[in-house]
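[agent] plan:
  1. take the single chain provided in the ticket
  2. run structure prediction with default settings
  3. attach C-alpha cells to the ticket
  4. add a short note for the reviewer (M.T.)
[agent] executing step 1
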Amino acid sequence: MDDIDRAIIRHLRQDGRMPNAALAAAVGLSPSACLRRLRLLERDGTIRGYTVVVDDPPPRDLVVVIVQITLERQTDDHLRRFEEAVRKCPEVRECYLMTGIADYLLRVEARDAADYERIHKEALSRMPGVARIQSAFAIRAVIRGG
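[agent] step 2 finished; step 3 output follows
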C-alpha cells in the first residue's frame, strides 16, 4: 500500500459514495487507474465493503450507559462465550474488546436508571464469565457518529 492507496481510502472514509471521477481527481490519477487501484484494494481485502452510517441519535428519553466488563478469565473460550451472549442483548448498542483494566467496553441504551438496573440484573450480570461490571451514565454526547 502506498500514499495513493492511503489517499483513496481516506477520501472514501469521508464519502463512500464519491464518484470514481471525483476520487481520481482528488488523488491525482486518471479515472481508469483509480478504478483499477480501488478494485485491487477490494480484492485484497483492504476494503471489505461499503456501509451507510445513519444518524440515529437516541430519543431524548433514553439514557446512554458506558459499561466496563471484566471477565474471570481471558481465554479464547471465555471471550467467545461472552461475545456470543452480548450479541443477543438488544440494549447493547456497541461492544469493544479492550486492552487495559477492563476486558470489554459497552455502550448500552436504556429508558431510565430503573431500566438500566433491569438490564444490569437480568442480562449483563448473567453473561458467562463476568467478574466485574462498572457503569457510568453519560450526561450528553459531545461527538457522535461513524
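[agent] step 4 note for reviewer: The chain has two domains: 3-43, 63-137.
[agent] ticket updated
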